[in-house]
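User: Small ask, check this?
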Amino acid sequence: MEFKIDNKQIEIFYSETENKKIPVIILNTFSGEGNKVWEECQKLKANDFILVAISKLSWSNDMTPWKCPPLYKGDSYCKRICR
C-alpha cells in the first residue's frame, strides 16, 4: 500500500495474518529504502510485523527537532521550528 501525505511518500508492507497482534515498525528513510528493508526481512524469515516506511524526507528539516547549523559542506541550515 502506498500514498502521500504532505509530499512525503508513505509505504506500508505487511503479510496477511490471522487477527493476531503484531508490532508496527516505523522506518524514516531518505530515498525510499522501505522495499529493500522489507525484502531482506522476508529473506531472514523474520517474525510477522508491519513496516511503515516514510520517505522523501528533508534530512535537515524533517529529521532534526531543533534549529542547527549545516552538518557538512554544501548542507543547508536547518530551519526546523518546533511547535
